[in-house]
Amino acid sequence: MDLSERQLQILQAIITDYVENAEPVGSRSIAKKYDLGVSPATIRNEMSDLEEMGYLTHPHTSAGRVPSDKAYRLYVNELMKKKNLSAKDKRMINDRLSASRDEFDRTIRHAAELLSEITHLASFAMTPATNEETISFIKLLPVDERTLILMIVSEGGQVTNTTLRLTVPYTQEALDLLSKNMTVSYKGRTLDDVLRSEIIHDVGSDIEALSALKGSVMPSFLRTLEDMLNVNLYMEGMTNIFNLPEYTSIDRARDFMELFARKDWFTQKMLARDNGVVVTIGEENDTMKDCTLITATYHVDGKLVGKIGVIGPTRMKYDEITSIMEYLTNNLSESFRLPGSTGDGNAGDKKQKK
Amino acid sequence: MDLSERQLQILQAIITDYVENAEPVGSRSIAKKYDLGVSPATIRNEMSDLEEMGYLTHPHTSAGRVPSDKAYRLYVNELMKKKNLSAKDKRMINDRLSASRDEFDRTIRHAAELLSEITHLASFAMTPATNEETISFIKLLPVDERTLILMIVSEGGQVTNTTLRLTVPYTQEALDLLSKNMTVSYKGRTLDDVLRSEIIHDVGSDIEALSALKGSVMPSFLRTLEDMLNVNLYMEGMTNIFNLPEYTSIDRARDFMELFARKDWFTQKMLARDNGVVVTIGEENDTMKDCTLITATYHVDGKLVGKIGVIGPTRMKYDEITSIMEYLTNNLSESFRLPGSTGDGNAGDKKQKK
DNA sequence: ATTAGCACTCTCGTTTAACGAGTGCTAACA
DNA sequence: TGTTAGCACTCGTTAAACGAGAGTGCTAAT
C-alpha cells in the first residue's frame, strides 16, 4: 500500500511541474526534465498505478496526469521541505510591519496586504476574538444635552464606543452615577459572560432620573458589547485570482468572489479552524471544494489569537506559502508582545525563522 | 441640429429596448413593438441620421443600433421621467433603514446593501467627510501602568480612539493635566485646521513628566486625527455585475473588480463629485470609460454630506435608479436630522418623495 | 416624404478535417 | 521480472468551410 521511492519521486515531479505550469503533465516531459534514469514507458506504468491509488487523475484519455487532492495532501504532510524566504521577502515583511507597530488594526491590514502581494493570491487577516477579555470600565461622556458617548474598555486595552442620542435630556450626575454603577456591576467579567446573562435589572434603578437614562443606554450597551466581540476582517488581493488559469471561466471567478461577499459567514468558518499553520485542500473544505485554504495564527500578548490566511486553487506552492506564513505570523506575534513579557517566546521564534 | 419629435421617439424606443435586452436593436423590431405609424424603412433612415449625429453606433454593418453615451446623456437630461417606486421597494427602504436609526455606520452600510439589492448593481455608501467638524474635547484614560487610551470627541459627537503602549509608566496627574491642556489648546478648532498646522509645541511642557508623556502621545494624536478624517467606505453587491452580459468577458470583470480594490483612490474620486444626484456616463468618467456612475448625497444634521452611489454598465435603468436613490437619500437625511431641528427640511422631502 | 424590395454584409453556430499530445498495450530485451 | 521501444488509438484543439439569419443601405416606385 505504501509508495515506492520511485513512485514518490515521480509524484513529486508531477506536482512540481503541474504547480509550475498548470497543465497536465505527460510521461515524456517528466522523463526529460527530471532525470530519474528511467524511460517514459516506465513512468507511464507508475503513473497508471498512482492513478489507481487515487493520487492522480486524468482529464481525458489522451491528456497528461494531474495531481489529486490526495496527492497534495501527501505532498504537504510528507514530501515538501521548508523553504527559506528570499531576502527580498524578508525585508519586505520586516519593513512593512514595523512601520506601525503600535497601531493594531492597521498592522493587521498591512499583514493581509503583504501576504497577497508576496503570494499573488487572495488573502485575509483578522483581529483576535475577544470573548475571554474582561471589562475594565464603562464610561459615559457628555457631548451635548441629548447626545452622549458610551465607551467600554477591556482590561487588555480594547475600546469600543457608540454615540447615542436620547429623546430627553440627561443630567451630568445621572451620567456619572450610571457609569460608576455599570462599572461596578461588570468589571472583571468577560464580554461573553455579560452578553449572555441578560442581567440588565441589577444596575440599580433607585433614583428615577437614573432609571430613565438606564433604559435608553442598556440596549446600546449590549449592541456595543456585540461590536466589541466582532473580529475585524480584512481581505486583500481578491483580484489576483483573475490571473490564474483556473479562474478564466467567469463562473468560477464569480463563485470565488461570492465567497467573500459573505463576510460574516466567512469569519465564522475561519474562527472555527485550529491554531497554527493549517492547510485544507479541495474536498477537505466543505465549501470551496476546488480551493486550498491555508491559515496561520498569531498571538497578542501571548494569549489572544488572531488569524491570517491565503486562499487559492489547490494548485499552489505549498512549501513557499506555508513558510512565508510562518515567518509572517512569528513576526506579528513578536510585534504584539507586551514590552515586559519577553522570554521563552522569542527563542521559539528564532528557531522557526531559521 | 435639434432632433425632430419622431427622432426623439425612435431614440427613446431604442434606448428602452436596448436597456431591457442588451442586444443591438433593429429597425424592424422597433416598428413592431412600438407603433410609431411608420415603416421599418423610415426608421432605418432616421437611425442613419441619428448615427451621423452621434447618438447611435453600429457594432458592425449588419447589426442593429446601440445607444451611445451621448444618447444616454440626452435621455437622462431630457427624455426620462421620474419613476414611482414600487410599494415593495418603499417598504423595504423604510423597514431596513429604520431598524438602526441611532447607529450611524451600521445604517450607512445597510443603505449600501439595500441599494445593491434593489438595483442589482454594485453600490457603495460613505460616511460624511468631517473636515469642518470641530474638536469638543480630548481625553486620556488609563488602562494599565503603561497603556492608555487617547480619545478625541468632536462637537458633532464623532469619536475616535487609539490605544497606546508607552515604554515608560505615566502618572495619573500627568494624564489629567495633558488631557486638559490639549482640550484647551484644540477645542473649537476644526480637525483639518489642527492637522495642518503642526503646532505641537504649545501644549505646555512646563512640567517634566508631562513633557515625556506629551512626546509619546502627540504622534498618535495626529494619526488619530487622520483616522477621524477618513470617511468609511462600504461596498456591496460587487458580484452582481457578473450576471450582466457586458461582464461575461473575464477581462472586463477583472477591470471592474480592480477599481474597487483601490479603496483610497475610489474614495477620493467620489468625494470630488458634486452634491445631489449626479450621473456620469461612460466617457464622461476619466477612468471606467464603459461604466455609468450615479451618486447621490445625504445630510447629517442638515450639514455634513455623505454619499451613496451605484456603478454599472452604461446600459442601465436611469429613470428607476435615480428615483430610488433620491428616495433613499431623502430617507437617510431625515433619519439623521437632529431631533430638535424639524422644519422646512421635511416639507422638501415630502415633495421629492411624491 | 415614405415605403417596398432586394442585394449585400457580417456574425454565429455547425460541420469537417487535420494535427498533436499522450496514453495503453504488446512484444522484445537485459 | 522489471524495463523499454514501438505503435495503434483516443481525444481535444484548431482552422477552414458553409449555411442560416438578422439587419442594413440603396434604388425605384408610390
Structure described in brief:
Two copies of one chain form a homodimer. With 354 residues, chain A is of the alpha+beta class.
How many beta-strand segments of chain A? 10
Q: Which blocks of ≥5 consecutive residues of chain A have pLDDT under 50?
A: 342-354
Oligomeric state of the chains in view? homodimer
Spatial order of strands in the largest sheet of chain A:
7-3-10-9-8
Order of helices and strands of chain A: HHHEEHHHEEEEHHHEHHEEEHH
Rg of chain A over CA atoms, rounded to whole Å, is: 27 Å
Number of helices of chain A: 13
What percentage of the residues of chain A does DSSP assign to strands (E)?
15-25%
Structural class of chain A: alpha+beta
Roughly how many Å apart are the termini of chain A? 35 Å
Give the largest interface: A-B, 42 and 42 residues
Shape of chain A: elongated
Helical content class of chain A: 40-55%
Overall mean confidence score, pLDDT of chain A: 89
The main β sheet of chain A shows up as:
5 strands, antiparallel
Describe this structure in words.
The structure is a homodimer of 354-residue chains. By secondary structure, chain A is an alpha+beta fold. Helix content of chain A is 47%, strand content 17%. Chain A has helices at residues 5-21, 27-33, 40-52, 69-79, 87-98, 104-119, 172-186, 191-196, 208-229, 250-261, 263-271, 318-335, 344-353; strands at residues 56-57, 66-67, 122-126, 135-142, 147-154, 159-165, 233-236, 278-281, 291-300, 304-313. In chain A, the strands form 3 sheets. In chain A, strands 7-3-10-9-8 form a 5-stranded antiparallel beta sheet, with helices on both faces. A 3-stranded antiparallel beta sheet of chain A has the order 4-5-6. In chain A, strands 1-2 form a two-stranded antiparallel ribbon. In chain A, a hairpin with a 4-residue loop joins β5 (147-154) and β6 (159-165). In chain A, α5 packs antiparallel against α6 and α6 packs antiparallel against α12. The structure holds a DNA duplex (30 and 30 nucleotides).
